[in-house]
Write a structure and sequence with these properties.
Layout lengths: L1 E5 L18 H6 L24 E11 L5 E12 L9 E5 L25 E5 L27 H15 L5 E7 L1 H12 L4 E7 L7 H15 L14 H15 L2 H5 L13 H11 L6 H12 L13 H6 L5 E4 L9 H8 L5 E3 L16 H15 L3
Parallel strand pairs: 4-5, 4-6, 6-7, 7-8, 8-9
Antiparallel strand pairs: 1-2, 2-3, 3-5
Helix pairs in contact: 2-3, 4-5, 4-8, 5-7
């Protein structure tokens, strides 16, 4: 049995009181961006044609079986929609979320003059398991609360969203799937698991497999967090603040390119007069502010296990899996990404039959794939719009 609902309130507002429920700032984190004003209050027929802000929804699957074999009694996917689904149900584009992100993570692509025009497109932006909104360690009751929540894979997420699209929204084909970072991981998985479901695929700052270097990087970040005695194996009664700060500092060291730091490009977003020490301390204390520790670890584990080669039928062969991709794929790594190095993307693109390989010329490292700078946003919007065949 599957349930869907349209809601404007935080999912956490209906969660049961749990043993290691984090402090009240989590509620602020969970839905820091209010969408009430963004949703048309008038009857659907009277709403303006263009909808450039998300309507908030959730979709619940009963007895969802994960790849690990664990069955979640209820698996919730939170998602947002932009625009209107047409009568033929053939104007939809999927935007799967990235690490610890909400469904607002693609708004740099959405709106007049950008690649995705909601006057003609219906956009579905989904949230990964483990982000604190969709089913996560922090909001799932026992026996799967906290560290007992199963490690969900990218394929688990893709399969759940496939059910959302086909069963809840009655969408059986997509115009495109566009993903950044872990969203790109999902886009690659869609292209392998459901090769005929979308006309086109776009992947920015993300690869079809997490290779050894990325696994080690993520393991270092997890180790920094869990070294905090307060973490207590995931059964903490107060948030492991020092561990989260350590996690954030390790993460920040990989986020931007070395040249970005040398040129002090952090000053372009910092308040006037901010010193380097103040900027770094802000990263330390506010990186993923309010996020739950078990949630950030869960999504890091999901990231580590990503490998399209492990899709059933491919026997662990990532090259064979990539060769199976049928549709045109726009592959846009950042030239300075330290999470997903350009060399990994160059290796993968040679096996994709209909690839358009277009690196992003940027010093902004990994976030370049989400339009981190004005130049990045312009480059991405122009290139993606051309690839989709939109004006």
């Amino acid at each position: 049995m599957v349930h869907s609902a349209f809601r404007l309130l935080a999912v956490s507002g209906h969660s049961p009181p749990l043993r290691n429920r984090t402090h009240p700032s989590v509620t602020k984190y969970v839905f820091a961006v209010t969408i009430a004003a963004a949703v048309c209050a008038a009857p659907r027929g009277l709403c303006a044609q263009r909808v450039d802000r998300a309507e908030h929804h959730q979709f619940v699957i009963d007895n969802f079986k994960t790849e690990s074999g664990v069955i979640l009694p209820k698996a919730t996917i939170v998602y947002g929609t932009y625009g209107r689904l047409n009568a033929a149900h053939d104007n939809a584009i999927l935007l799967p979320s990235h690490y610890m992100a909400t469904h607002h993570g693609y708004e740099w692509l959405i709106g007049p003059g950008r690649a995705l025009d909601t006057a003609t497109m219906f956009l579905v932006a989904t949230e990964l398991f483990g982000n604190g909104h969709s089913s996560s360690p922090s909001n799932t009751p026992e026996p799967y609360h906290g560290p007992r929540f199963p490690v969900t894979t990218i394929r688990d997420n893709v399969d759940a969203v496939h059910r959302l699209l086909t069963e809840d929204l009655k969408i059986t084909h997509l115009r495109a799937i566009i993903g950044f970072s872990m969203g790109a991981e999902q886009a690659f998985q869609w292209a392998v698991s459901y090769p005929d479901f979308a006309d086109r695929i776009v992947a920015t700052s993300g690869t079809a497999k997490t290779y050894g270097h990325g696994i080690v990087r993520l393991e270092g970040q997890i180790a920094a967090l869990t070294a905090d005695p307060t973490f207590n194996g995931g059964d903490y009664t107060t948030p492991p603040k020092k561990g989260m700060e350590a996690f954030g500092m390790v993460w920040a060291g990989w986020l931007y390119s070395q040249e970005w730091w040398r040129r002090e490009l952090w000053k372009t977003s910092a308040a006037a007069g901010t010193t380097f020490d103040q900027y770094v301390n802000n990263l330390r204390t506010n990186f993923l502010s309010g996020a739950d520790a078990n949630d950030v670890i869960l999504q890091a584990r999901t990231w580590q296990r990503h490998d399209v080669g492990n899709t059933p039928g491919f026997g662990g062969d990532v090259e064979r899996a990539l060769r199976s991709i049928k549709v045109p794929l726009l592959y846009m790594p950042s030239e300075t990404d330290l999470y997903f190095p350009l060399t990994d993307a160059r290796y993968e693109q040679q096996f994709i039959p209909k690839v358009q390989f277009t690196p992003i010329p940027s010093l902004w490292g990994h976030p370049a794939g989400a339009g981190a700078s004005p130049a990045d946003r312009d480059f991405l919007n122009t290139t993606i719009a051309r690839f989709l065949g939109t004006p």
